[in-house]
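Good morning C.,

I know you're traveling, so I'll keep this short. The sequence:
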Amino acid sequence: MVEKKRKKSGNFKRKKFGNDGSYEKVVRINRISKTVAGGRRMRFNALVIVGDKKGKVGVGLAKAKEVSLAIDKARRLALRHMAVVVMDGNTIPHEMLVKFKAVKILLKPARRGRGIVAGQTLRAVAEAAGIKDLVTKIIGSTNPVNVAKAAMKGLTGYLP
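The tokens, ready to paste straight into the viewer:
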């Protein structure tokens, strides 16, 4: 099976719809350097969110020596850790306050047609899950990795 070359956007954030209707978004790419005797070793880590837009979503965080390898590794991890989101129509069933490390997230159901009122990471998780109406507020740290994990904890009750 030959894999198609993916077009990269300037800031490495992309949305992809697979043949099966799956949704993938690269939320964050970090460059990590480790100082060793000969100089610095560069690696990259990628945070990828994957979902089927029908109530299943997964978050993957992986490291590699190249950006494309890190993204692919994170995508496979996210697919492996997909979980079911409890939904009430196009929104969540009730209001919830989720705490994960230094992040607190307030998730509120919204009326039909309101849309997703959220930051980049939370919006990606909600879109991947298929939620169409949601109001959120992040209190405390806005670290994308912890925000994504807090969102998973709140929406699915499962931590990747």
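Safe travels,
E.
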